[in-house]
């Protein structure tokens, strides 16, 4: 994968930014009167292709729901949703989306499945760099320049 962008260094961190910058997640919230008793998520990627994803939901009552290996649609009994995020099968994690509507029960979601760096920090240690993975977690290895 090749990504163009810029970087800058502050203290012991390398900060990366992709160019052009893209939205990781685009969400269209609606109330669908035909689905009064359920929530429905329709998920596609930026190329308008269907994808397999895991959906992580935080409810208003503090409970968390996880729907693994979902494809195209996720439908479940209606509960008030506070926020959600997605992880695709490559491990790429979306940003957390906070619900804006009071009665929203239908979500049309476009997920950017290409790697995006948005002020992402990697650790510099000596002559090596510790990168973050698709999921935003530091990896167990370091990158070093080979002469």
Kindly describe this structure.
It is built from no helices and 13 strands. A 5-stranded antiparallel sheet has the order 1-2-11-12-13, with no helix packed on it. The mean pLDDT is 91. The protein has 147 residues and is an all-beta fold. The chain folds into 2 domains: 55 residues, no CATH class; 91 residues, Sandwich (Immunoglobulin-like). The chain is elongated, with a radius of gyration of 18 Å. A hairpin with a 4-residue loop joins strand 5 and strand 6.
Helix content: under 10%
Largest sheet: 5 strands, antiparallel
Q: Please tally the β strands and state the result.
A: 13
State the CATH class of the largest domain.
Mainly Beta
Q: How many structural domains does the protein architecture include? A: 2
CATH third-tier fold name of the largest domain? Immunoglobulin-like
Class from helix and strand fractions? mainly beta
Number of helices: 0
Strand order of the largest sheet: 1-2-11-12-13
Judging by the overall fold, what is the CATH architecture of the largest domain?
Sandwich
The helix/strand series, from N terminus to C terminus, equals EEEEEEEEEEEEE
Beta-strand portion reads over 45%
- Molecular shape: elongated
Determine Rg (CA atoms, Å).
Answer: 18 Å
Distance between the termini: 22 Å
At a glance:
It contains no helices and 13 strands.
List the helices and strands and how they pair.
Blueprint: E1 5-10, E2 13-18, E3 25-30, E4 38-45, E5 52-59, E6 64-71, E7 73-77, E8 81-88, E9 97-98, E10 106-111, E11 118-125, E12 128-130, E13 143-144
Parallel strand pairs: 4-10
Antiparallel strand pairs: 1-2, 2-11, 3-10, 4-7, 5-6, 5-8, 8-9, 11-12, 12-13
